[in-house]
Specification:
By secondary structure, the protein is α+β, with helices and mostly antiparallel strands. Among the domains are: 224 residues, Penicillin binding protein transpeptidase fold; 122 residues, Sandwich (Immunoglobulin-like). Helix content is 35%, strand content 15%. It is built from 22 helices and 25 strands. The strands form 7 sheets. Strands 17, 18, 20, 21, 22 and 23 form a 6-stranded antiparallel β-sheet that branches. A 5-stranded mixed β-sheet has the order 2-1-5-10-11, with helices on one face. The chain has a 5-stranded antiparallel β-sheet with strand order 7-6-14-13-12, sandwiched between helices. The longest helix has 59 residues. The relative contact order is 0.08.
Length: 812
């Protein structure tokens, strides 16, 4: 047993030693040959990269391939623009023209080891791989400046493994052929800086109106910030993002010792301001529409702007050249706009949509659009009364409890601390008349009846989801926290015009590219989001807005137009002067819908509109009339089953009389009691020297008096009976006039003489419009009456896109 016991350990020791010896040798040889193979493969791969790059350079020589131009076509497939061709804004800078600090800015930002590597930065590649593995996705790139140059100069924008390998080959070959300064200079002359600008020299000129040697540190950093995302970090279109990215560039420059901390902090704080002559540096057709097309193309193709520009794509759009040309001409006509006191022009935006297809026919982002770089069809503004059909009348009709002929209260009252006012009396009025006159009290009363939540939900259905802060009664008058855009308003009205069915606005029909690439627009499934009856009733009521006596009469063209005006007060604290901040007209025919906004980008007491929304309505007419001329006329589609009421207009007022009261110095008007029920009497007056009658007042009895008369004047009156429930008026009464001499005014004992009666006028003339001499009618003046807000605190200064509840009160 001792023998056996002594032998067992020897055998285990022998086996254990043998096992450890084999394991060590195996791993040694595996590691050794793996390293050798890896080194050989790396050498072979690197030699292949060099040889392939040299071959490509020899094959192409000095030929610079910037890519194939992408072409944009209008609705008729006619070319309207090239996104990338010989007309691009490009200037070549020589190496000695580029300041060293500008070179440092790009090296610090794009390729910190530029002066150390030979085209490929293996340290950066390794670091990027580690971060990608940790994040389990691509989070960091490792392309050197030389690689980016290879891609921009010699290669297409296709993202493939073969292209990346080719890019590396060319990068290494370029490093063998060119010096570092030559590579850096060539790179800066080729990269894209947004706004159709290529090359550092052109970028300095376009964004700062300076030569390269005049650039300041903050300007250099701004330019160095752009190659990462030229569209996002463009200081014209996105000044906040540009400034934030500039700060990152400056921090990199500071960390690498190119600038001091003081220089960094100073350069970070500068605010960008576009040079005054920037508009003249880029003259092109339809710039706002082209920019909208590019934005949509980026979204639907998931490609960058640069890829779209150099990819040789053919982009077929919805642009209607006739409509767009008319719009451009009218936006270039200064007579259509308020004259400003300084260089800040009054602005406007407009978009036209074919609501039958969703195709955008024409749009304008503003006057001098290129100069501002701000597409105002996407800028949020306060809609005023143009929001009433969306926030009040539409949702009220949807309940099934209200109709265009429904009688609505018009009482002067407060709703808690909210006390809206307008120029109309307290007489009940039909919904149609309330829309036609744009009555404020009626709108607020009705929203209170149906509930604010119902109004907000209806707005959401039409594409405008409102924040909780807007859930209050000022919603009835378009008092929104951040406002809505012209494109949103045009879309909402398009849904109404389309019988309550969804509309998807778009500018692109199709995109074709290399390798059989094709994108074709497919409309989303059509949904009935509001009832056909509601859409029809809204159309009926808004047709009255553009008829004689309505606030939108100047929008009339040679086919039926339904629409709504809107204005907002200036809302400037401690300023009691007149002026309008926003003016709107949103309307539609049976074929097209359009929204017009007018105002200043930055409103203050010196930058307010002097005219009401009739100016916006007039611009609508001037553009829509000729733009839609060649479009076949159709008609609004009336639902098969829709409730209607047949009524007869009330009879005319009889025995109309005037009498002067010398004691109270007033004119007393009276007439016989009317046989109809729920009749209101509208009184119209014309003072001597005036050409047209104006609405003087309303009465529910058979008398009314005028205390606003004066000696030495003659006044003419007539009365019509009005059925508010059915929105019908009688023929005019006889016209009577009365006068008081100065002596009679000062000596009431002098008897009044009898004055003759004028013959009645045909009922068609009952609306008291003001003839402008050209066959159109001036709408009633839009009354802007300040209201109390739900809180009694004074609002802070108002910025663009911010409004307080007292702001939008108006009577257009």
């Amino acid at each position: 047993m001792a023998e056996q016991t002594g032998q067992a350990p020897k055998k285990r020791t022998s086996k254990a030693k043998k096992k450890r010896r084999m394991s060590g040798m195996t791993w040694f040889y595996v590691a050794f040959f793996s390293i050798v193979i890896a080194i050989v493969c790396a050498i072979i791969g690197y030699v292949f990269i060099i040889m392939n790059g040299e071959r490509l350079l020899a094959e192409h020589g000095n030929k610079l391939e910037f890519g194939e131009a992408s072409i944009i076509y209008d609705m008729n497939d006619n070319e309207i623009a090239r996104l990338y061709d010989i007309n691009e804004n490009r200037e070549i800078a020589e190496a000695d023209e580029i300041p060293k600090l500008l070179l440092d800015a790009f090296v610090a930002t794009e390729d910190q080891r530029f002066y150390e590597h030979s085209g490929l930065d293996f340290w950066a590649i390794g670091r990027a791989l580690v971060k990608d593995v940790i994040a389990r996705k691509a989070v960091e790139g490792a392309s050197t400046i030389t690689q980016q140059l290879a891609k921009n100069v010699f290669l297409s924008a296709d993202k493939t493994l073969f292209r990346k390998a080719t890019e590396a080959s060319i990068a290494v070959a370029l490093e063998q052929k060119l010096t570092k300064p030559e590579i850096l200079t060539m790179y800066l002359n080729r990269i894209f800086f947004g706004s159709r600008v290529h090359g550092i020299k052109a970028a300095a000129d376009y964004y700062f109106d300076k030569d390269l040697d005049q650039l300041e540190l903050w300007e250099m950093a701004t330019l160095a910030a752009m190659p990462k995302a030229p569209n996002r970090y463009n200081p014209v279109n996105h000044p906040k993002d540009s400034k934030a990215r500039r700060a990152v560039v400056l921090k990199l420059m500071y960390d690498q010792g190119y600038i001091t901390e003081a220089e960094m902090e100073k350069a970070k704080e500068v605010e960008y301001k576009a040079p005054a002559n920037q508009a003249q540096k880029r003259v092109e057709k339809y710039p706002a529409f082209i920019d909208t097309i590019i934005d949509e193309a980026i979204e639907v193709t998931n490609k960058s702007e640069e890829e779209l520009r150099v990819g040789g794509y053919h982009i077929y759009t919805t642009l209607n050249p006739i409509a767009q040309k008319v719009m451009e001409e009218q936006f270039n006509n200064d007579n259509n706009f308020d004259e400003s006191v300084d260089e800040q022009k009054s602005q406007a935006a407009m978009v036209i949509i074919d609501h039958r297809t969703g195709e955008i026919q024409a749009l304008s982002g503003g006057r001098d659009y290129v100069k501002k770089g701000l597409n105002r069809i996407n800028s949020k503004r306060q809609p005023g009364s143009a929001f009433k059909p969306i926030s009040v009348y539409g949702p009220a009709l949807e309940t099934g409890n209200y109709f265009p002929w429904s009688n609505l209260k018009n009482d002067q009252k407060c709703f808690g601390n909210y006390c809206p006012r307008d120029r109309w009396g307290a007489v009940p009025v039909s919904m149609t008349q309330a829309v036609k006159d744009s009555r404020n009290l009626t709108a607020v009363w009705l929203l209170n009846q149906i509930g604010v939540k119902r109004g907000a939900e209806f707005s959401k259905k039409l594409g405008m989801e409102l924040p909780q802060e807007d859930y209050n009664l000022s919603l009835a008058l378009g008092g929104l926290t951040t406002g809505v855009t012209p494109l949103q308003m045009a879309t909402a009205y398009s849904i109404i015009a389309n019988g309550g069915q969804t509309v998807d606005p778009h500018t692109i029909r199709m995109i074709k590219g290399r390798n059989n690439y094709k994108y074709e627009y497919k409309a989303p499934e059509v949904k009935q989001i509001i009832s056909k009856e509601t859409a029809w009733y809204l159309t009926e009521m808004m047709l009255a807005v553009v008829e004689k006596g309505g606030t939108g009469v100047r929008a009339a063209i040679d086919r039926p137009v339904a629409g709504k005006t809107g204005t907002t007060q200036h809302g400037i604290p401690n300023y009691t002067g007149n002026g309008i901040r926003d003016a709107w007209f949103v309307g539609y025919t049976a074929e097209w819908s359009a929204a017009v906004w007018m105002g200043y980008d930055d409103s203050d007491k010196d930058h307010l509109l002097k005219n009401n929304s009739s100016q916006a309505a007039s611009l609508f007419s001037k553009i829509m009339g000729p733009a839609i001329k060649n479009v076949k006329k159709s008609s609004f589609k009336k639902p098969q089953v829709v409730k209607e009421v047949e009524v007869i207009a009330p009879s005319a007022v009889k025995n109309f009389q005037l009498e002067f009261d010398p004691v109270e110095l007033k004119v007393v008007l009276s007439w016989d009691p009317h046989p109809g029920e729920n009749i209101t009497f509208k009184v119209y007056r014309k003072e001597e020297g005036e050409q047209n009658f104006s609405h003087f007042g309303d009465s529910t009895s058979n008398t009314i008096w005028d205390t606003s008369v004066f000696g030495g004047k003659k006044y003419t009156y007539y009365v019509v009976a009005y059925d508010a429930e059915n929105n019908l008026e009688s023929a005019q009464s006889e016209k009577l006039f009365i006068a008081v001499t100065d002596d009679q005014w000062e000596n009431p004992d002098i008897p009044m003489e009898e004055f003759p009666t004028l013959p009645p006028t045909d009922p068609i003339e009952t609306d008291p419009g003001v003839d402008d001499g050209e066959g159109s009618t001036e709408p009633p003046v839009e009354t802007e009456v300040p209201t109390e807000t739900p809180t009694n605190t004074e609002p802070p200064p108002i910025d663009e896109g911010e409004v307080f509840e007292e702001l939008p009160v108006e009577g257009n």
